[in-house]
Amino acid sequence: MMRISTQDAGMLHAETLEMPMHTMGVLLLEKPAHSVYDGLRRAMQKRLHLIGPFRRRLVAGPLQIGDPHWLEDPDFDLDRHIHRAAVLPPGGMRELEAFAGEVAARLLDRSRPLWEMHVVEGLRGGRVALIVKVHHAAMDGGRLVALMGALLDTSPRGRRVPPPDHEWIPEREPSLAWMALDASRTLAIKPFNALRAITEIGGVLLRNRGGDAPDTRPDEHRPKVFEAQPTPFNGRLSAERAVAMADVPFDDVKLIKDAFGTTVNDVVLAASCAGLRAWLLAHDALPEQPLVATVPVAVRSGAGGDAEAGNRVSMILAQLPVHDDDAVRRLRSINAGTSRAKQHHGSSKGDVFRQTSDLLLNVSTPWMLHHIMALYSGSDLPDRLPVPWNLVISNLPGPRTALYCAGARVQRVYPFGPLQLGSGLNITVMSAMDRLCVGALACKRRMPDVTLVTAAFVAEIAQLKKLARKAQSRTRRGSGGNSTRRMAG
Fold first, then answer.
1. What are the per-10-residue average pLDDT scores of the chain (489 residues)?
2. CA separation for the pair 20, 14 (Å, rounded)
3. Partner residues linked to 19 by β-bridges
4. Of 22, 136, 344, 345, which residue is the catalytic one?
5. How far is CA 327 from the centre of its chain?
6. Which residues of 104-128 are buried (b: 16+ CB within 10 A; e: fewer)?
């Protein structure tokens, strides 16, 4: 068995009906020549050894006191995880989004390995969609991208997959005595782990106050946790989900980035900011101050980190100036803020999510933490208390080459991250092939019209592209004029 890391355990214990903690991807495939369902099933049978977490089941300690473990599931059955479905006519993007929202709303069955796939047929033009759903505790976004490399091919003919080095050996369920002994060991070291977590967090806080940070001056413009502006999409969540998908040419994003001297992530944040501004204006709820987004940052060490080490994610906070009506000014403001945040994040030397999870899990028990989260999410407290941030915005680098699934070419890959309590919207983007694909997941009660956000995202990229070309044209004219004057001199 494999002990679950602290951060992964935190995601398991914090999960509630209103806050499923799985990630999801929707792959849109061209019209296939053969059955995608049959081809996918055959491919998965040959490649399961490349995806270790897919055959591991959760084993919890007695009374949910000890640490949970991953067990090589002796009852693993592939047919319980790959499903076949069809969308309602006429089979457009709206129908696919509705079906994806239903899939996103359902919790994964913890008596089985925490993943499932849905082959969705009935789409217009004979196309097929593949929805991949994996618990965040089993795979973070980076490892989900790596999964694509194991699942997909670079040729419609597929590829030869080397057999496993050794035969897969399922594990027996541990005895109650073993689990009780392990729980006792866990309880014995909790005070020491809690003290270590407090020490680490205290060290980070001291450094952030100026100890060894490169810039000790206080930054009044740096966004702070629990100072986010209230919005209609923040508050108590329902268990229903709304989904929106859109995409733009990745070359347009790179053009904007180069013209204004920013980063791809800044352009993503600026387009997301425009999407939020459009939605808030439509609901007469535009605040006079910026919103606050948390942007996950991978903190794996080494060349990609240990793929089996669990989630290692920290975050930076970014201000989104939704109150500003100028697209370029919004982009430049976001670029300045993220530059400061990255400098601050790099100097803090802290893995905040892991340290916080360490502290919470070591001053409580899994049973206690889960019930506290369930009581909180089912009450009116999220509507009354300030939220730590307004939403999560993630940017995942995807594959650049053409990909095929069971012989059918992948046209789009739309990623989705989980919602967090009090935050009814998650925007995740992935640069895959030659497109930047946007997946917006929202609480259906809070934001049923989340398509307004993705539509404005696309419109903002088009607007910034025009302004970027004008800026480049002015730069070229200015450079030409300077050269002429130098020659004349």
1. 82 91 96 96 94 92 76 96 97 98 97 97 98 90 76 91 90 84 75 71 59 46 83 96 98 97 97 98 97 80 44 79 98 95 62 63 71 86 90 92 95 95 95 95 98 98 97 82 47
2. 9
3. 16
4. 136
5. 25
6. bbeebeeebbbbbbbbbbbbeeebb
The sign of the torsion formed by the CA atoms of 205, 213, 297, 58 equals: negative
Cβ atoms of 389 and 225 closer than 8 Å: yes
**Residue 152 identity (one-letter amino acid):** L
CA nearest 410: which of 3, 4, 29, 67? Answer: 29
Q: Which residue has the tokens 């490169």?
A: 214
- Nearest-angstrom CA–CA distance, 143 and 175: 31
Task: Give 40-48 contacts, CB < 8 A, sequence gap 24+.
Answer: 40/82, 40/117, 40/119, 40/130, 40/405, 40/406, 41/78, 41/79, 41/82, 43/151, 43/158, 43/406, 44/78, 44/82, 44/151, 45/78, 46/161, 47/150, 47/151, 47/161, 48/78, 48/168
Q: Is 323 a catalytic residue?
A: no
User: Under a CB-based contact definition with an 8 Å cutoff, are residues 393 and 295 in contact?
Assistant: yes
